[in-house]
Protein 1
Amino acid sequence: MENFRALRVHQDKSGNFYRRVEERSVDELPPGELLVQVQYSSLNFKDVLSATGAKGVTRHYPHTPGIDIVGTVIESTGKRIRCGEQVIATGFNIGMDTDGGFGQLARIPENWALLKPTKLDTLDSMVLGTAGLTAALSISKLEQFGMKPDLGPILVTGATGGVGCIATALLSQIGYTVHVVTGKQHQHDFLRSLGANDMLSREDALERIDRPLQKEQWGGVVDTVGGDTLMNAIKGLRRECSATTCGLVSSPFFRGSVLPFILRHVNLLGIDTAELALAQRANLWGRLANEWKVQHLARIHTETFTLQNLEAGIAKILCGEMVGRGVVDLQNS
């Protein structure tokens, strides 16, 4: 395949950003040991930031977003991965300042890619994508810090988003009681179908926000939104329990107090999969393909886009209307 199609984001002379599907040559791709024929990508909040000109994500335009890739290697000068093998690549600089998965071909360094687990098909791997890896890392890290099902219910914020709904399904599947925070009341049945035991509104999650401590109730927290919702959840952690944080859609800032930390010995754990070491990635993907294989991925996979209708998905995320996970089909674009 000498030429291929990709979504390109441009910045005009006035500083405005626009997007269009373009025909590109393989020679235009950046350097790297692997040339991948992309089968699927997924649509993430970070992709939307890149596609709309967020300089904190992408500094150089024109650019192809898409932080997640699964596909077949068609050229390799690497030592570990050979032609014909299927790979997963997420994070690092993919889709940020290195052309990403919203193109039918991608060239990446070998040390950004992992062989796809045989028990995980290509579609399911992108229903998971960065969101699934983030959910798995959050749960793994909480368990490393002592989280157990008998310590109390786990609170998941932003539960209809990618990380939130995968975390809800996986926690329920491995034996936890899961309470979720969502502003989408009409999605309660969807969340119950994933295993959520109880629902909190956004207002519930911010109740009595001015108190330095809340009633001890959470055996752990998977936070995806940040802001005061995160801090209020920390105030409600049971003694020696922990919260993870991986998102900022509510706010990157919160009004905090040291009291939960020094009186209840709780922990706030940061989660970032973009620079996660390959060995840790391989371990988590292995678990997601085996003992942590998510049973409800078909429900979580709510949208399939092509390059031609990807604008609709970008608009949905910008409006806060996206539920579950959207996959981008590059084969049929």
Protein 2
Amino acid sequence: MKAAASSYLQAKLKNKQGLKAIYEQVTNELEQVEIILKEMTNSSNPLIVEIGNYLFRKSGKRIRPALLLLCAKLLGYKGNQDILFSALIEAIHTASLIHDDIIDNSNLRRGQLTVHAKWGPNITVLLGDYLYIKTIDQALKNSSPKILEVLTEVTSEMIEGEITEYYHSGNLELKEEEYYEIIKKKTASLFSAACQISSILAQSNQETENKLAQFGLNLGMTFQIIDDLLDFTGDEKKLGKPPLSDLREGRITLPLIFLLQNGNSHYKTKIAEYFKNKNSSESLKTEIIDIMVKNGALKYALAKAREFGERSKQIIMDFPASIYRDSLALFTDFLLNRDH
């Protein structure tokens, strides 16, 4: 029966149902998460309501809430606080994206105008702060000190990661280990926190909590490396932004680090030229991508993503067999094969 459940999910994933197949066991809970997210921007201030409606008018991938919900079911949690904390995790993620778009001066996200582009940086900064504070307020009212500690720590860690990344913008000497530390803080830490909170809610032992935290961390590392790869390999229509957008902003990612450490001075010259000219020609963009392919940089980054993904899968497969475990294991396959 359990093997049949795993085969059923694998078949759905192969049939391009992707996240829909993985989320099948938590669809109702995710709908309730959407309701809570919309309620978080209920306010007497019409501008907050307007921006909130714009932000949450379409649900994104909702990977982090789904992780928390599925981990909670994996552990046999019977309450409903997993729904609330899934929404709070997503609110923290949304607030980080809002601030991220200001830092990058991004006008598009998922093919839509960013809050920054529609309402300007001043309002956008305040709206991001508003979501962070609302999240902590809800956590104070509804959680144990331990969950509150996880949420506050992950928020500060994400901000620290963003600051470190910004500090290293355009730094062609950035080392691979430093890159991993940046993405661990800015991205993987929230994946880890989502899984850890489910364990706290289920009152699991420390070993289980640590295992789920590590599962989320490795999955988050996989997610971010693939995200960085897509800047070079993704389709503009699917990504909702032009290729090499991250590179244009000076972000030093794993493919670039490999290229710079394993290429010749000509490569570094081309990258520096791209950084200096924000309106680089299409021919230069194409040349950089071609260099990445020929040098093996893209292949190397994909191999590293697979390493982190395999670690996450090994951790989760150590849990007793269930459809929830199998759904969580399939996250790795989805993330490694996603195109946006």
